[in-house]
Design a protein that fits this description.
- The longest helix is centred in the N-terminal third of the chain and has 28 residues.
- Helix 1 packs antiparallel against helix 2.
- With about 90 residues, the protein is an all-alpha fold.
- It is built from four helices and no strands.
Length: about 90
C-alpha cells in the first residue's frame, strides 16, 4: 500500500506542477491571445495526464483525483480504508 500511495502522491504533485507550468507557459507564449493560451494549456495538461496515467496506472491505478477514488470504492473495487488513504494522499500532495 505504501508503494501505491507514493505513486499517487508523486503523480498528484507532477500533475499539479504540469497544470501550473502549462498555464504559465501558455500565458507567456500566446502573445495575449486568450484562446491560444487556453488551447496550449489544455494540450500540455492532457499530454502530461496521459503520460502520468500510463506511468502510474500499473502501480496505483493513477486516480489523481479523490472523486475517482470514491467512485471506484462505490463500484466495489476498493475498500473504504483504501479510498481514504488514496484521497488524503491526493489532497495533501496536489
Amino acid at each position: 500500500m505504501q508503494r501505491k500511495l507514493l505513486a499517487e502522491a508523486l503523480g498528484s504533485m507532477l500533475l499539479s506542477a504540469t497544470v501550473v507550468g502549462s498555464g504559465i507557459m501558455a500565458e507567456q507564449l500566446s502573445g495575449g491571445n486568450t484562446a491560444l493560451a487556453l488551447l496550449a494549456n489544455t494540450l500540455a495538461t492532457a499530454a502530461a495526464l496521459v503520460t502520468l496515467i500510463a506511468l502510474f496506472a500499473p502501480i496505483s491505478g493513477a486516480h489523481f483525483n479523490p472523486v475517482v477514488s470514491i467512485s471506484l470504492t462505490l463500484l466495489g473495487r476498493h475498500t473504504w480504508k483504501e479510498m481514504l488513504a488514496y484521497s488524503m494522499t491526493q489532497i495533501l500532495f496536489c
